[in-house]
Design brief:
Blueprint lengths: L1 H13 L2 E2 L5 E2 L3 H30 L4 H18 L8 H24 L6 H74 L5 H8 L1
Antiparallel strand pairs: 1-2
Helix pairs in contact: 1-2, 2-3, 2-4, 3-4, 4-5
Length: 206
């Protein structure tokens, strides 16, 4: 999961989305958020390092804002990931979409302080918000479907194991009960016999 997310994040940064207005944005924070929510802060910290190292390699004037923004997102997702896996499926989907929405909103608010609020900015805002929210929603639905299938398969295997154990237990009980029944029958016959002494019958009764 971590390696696949790292590759996805690097590819998102390598091949960003170019708008006609000249703005550029990518989807690097979608795999970052998903790994942080499901994998915990340790895996998220590894992606955090990969993100900033690769952003430094790419170069450009946006490294410092990107570093500060990714740090804020790392802290935000760390707070939101506590007990995340314990929620129900719909709650996990809604929380992931909400975090993705808040992430992009924070990015757009930060960007609005550096540029004029013209038609190009609002076009970027629309595409960035809708793309991030829709992509996060689709990915989370697919992930939850995979998790549901895995849980169903595990429950089926567990029921099969219990069925096999119950059949084995019944078979063992049957094999033990047969000789015990035969032995009990012989003891009752010996108890009724007149050829054995009373002291010997006391052993049978015992």
């Amino acid at each position: 999961m971590l390696s696949l997310s790292s590759v996805s994040m690097i590819l998102c940064m390598t091949y960003p989305i170019y708008l006609d207005s000249g703005f550029i944005f990518d989807l690097r924070y979608i795999p970052f958020i998903i790994v942080a929510l499901f994998g915990g802060y340790k895996n998220a910290f590894i992606l955090y390092l990969i993100l900033n190292i690769y952003r430094f390699i790419i170069g450009g004037d946006g490294f410092i804002p990107s570093f500060l923004f990714s740090t804020f997102i790392f802290v935000l997702v760390y707070i939101g990931s506590r007990k995340y896996v314990q929620f129900q499926s719909r709650a996990r989907i809604s929380r992931a979409v909400l975090i993705s929405f808040c992430t992009m909103m924070f990015y757009l608010v930060t960007l609005s302080l550096q540029t004029s609020l013209n038609q190009e900015f609002w076009t970027l805002s629309f595409y960035a918000l809708t793309t991030h929210v829709v992509m996060m929603l689709i990915l989370m639905i697919l992930i939850e479907r995979v998790i549901s299938n895995m849980e169903t398969r595990e429950a089926y295997l567990h029921s099969e194991r219990l069925h096999v154990i119950s059949e084995l237990t019944a078979s063992v009980a049957h094999e033990i009960r047969n000789p015990l029944t035969v032995t009990n029958g012989f003891l009752q016959l010996l108890k009724r016999s007149e050829t054995i002494s009373p002291s010997e019958k006391s052993y049978i009764e015992y």
